[in-house]
Design a protein that fits this description.
globular; START-like_dom_sf; Phosphatidylinositol transfer protein alpha isoform; 268 residues; alpha+beta; PI_transfer; single chain; 30% helix; 8 strands; phosphatidylinositol transfer activity
Amino acid sequence: MLISEYRIVMPVSVDEYQVGQLFSVMEASKNETGGGDGVEIIKNEPFENHKDYGSGQYTFKKYHLASKVPKFVKMLAPEGSLVLEEEAWNAFPYCKTVLKNPSYMKDNFFIDVSTHHLADAGTTENCHKLSGKQLKLRKVVNIDIAMDKVPASDYKKEEDPTKVKSEKTGRGPLGKGWQTKVDPVMTSYKLVTCEFKWWGLQNRVEKVVMDSNERLHRNFHRQLYCWMDKWHGLSMKDIRKLEAQAKADIDKLRKESELRGTKGEDDE
């Protein structure tokens, strides 16, 4: 089992982040869907009185990943097994997401993501209230959306925070040490736990999962910032309307368009 805590500082308020995150999930889902692969949205509905999370928005999605995993995974995985099911409870500013592969790996594989969104610059050391044993296992990864290097295959000038300025807010471009200079500022603290029980492959697959998570969170939050002028000023009512249309668009893309988005990287 591996535990990583990704700390992603953003030049937005916590309330702004809620809107920007939901908008960017829709856009990223469309960009990653096509040729049979990508996102399938099964449910997106409010929930209330949950014993752990209170009230918020529940989503159930399937991720079709045949084109997005390393070659060695494709070689080992039976046909049709590269589908993850995701349940998420968005009780913002806390969110819980669980991904599994019930059709093949069943209880031998899961990815658990717990996220707190706090109005600080990544300075809270144990917002997830981990035990001493968990803290020893936890790896903290600070993600700098502006200065971290990204693979050439992921780089787009229009999604580079060092080059993009928001016309609506006047924020950016972001330079070295921007986290201590911006106002507002907030941090997404994502605690990711991964377990893959398969003798001989456990360490390798868990490392691939964590590397993929870091890549995903870095790219996604670079986009969230660079798309600020598309989402800033939208209300939650606006977001729910857009989500309904996005589901129809994504279903059509998955069935009718060519493969799109991130491709699996080999770790050889």
